[in-house]
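Fig. S4 source data, part A: sequence.
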Amino acid sequence: MSENTKEAGRKIMNELMGDGYVEGKDKKRNAFNSALFDYSEEVCFGRTWSRPGIDRKLRSILNIAMLTALNRPAQLAHHVEGAINNGCTLEEIREILLHAAVYCGLPSAGEAFRVAEEVLRERKLIS
């Protein structure tokens, strides 16, 4: 594992999810899950999120759509947060989820709307 790639990944994770995110994950790190944490930091964020070709906002849009399709609410909450940090507007997030409803089904999109609303309320962006 390249330390530069891992450090780049940790930096991107904090930029995407907010200051302190990586430190919070570090507190959960143990001998069992450290390989997965390293993989996420190096491959997902250090290699993929850092690539040129598409910007972070578009990556966030893709993640919201894919996590809605996969019905992964815990990860979706993190990536809605990241999408806001990457410049997605409330209207864009709503339209991504509505568009996903057509292709992924109402149950997945309904859960995604619920998760997104939770994040938006916590950030005081909706009441």
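Fig. S4 source data, part B ends here. Helices lie at 3-17, 21-28, 34-49, 56-70, 73-85, 90-104, 106-122.
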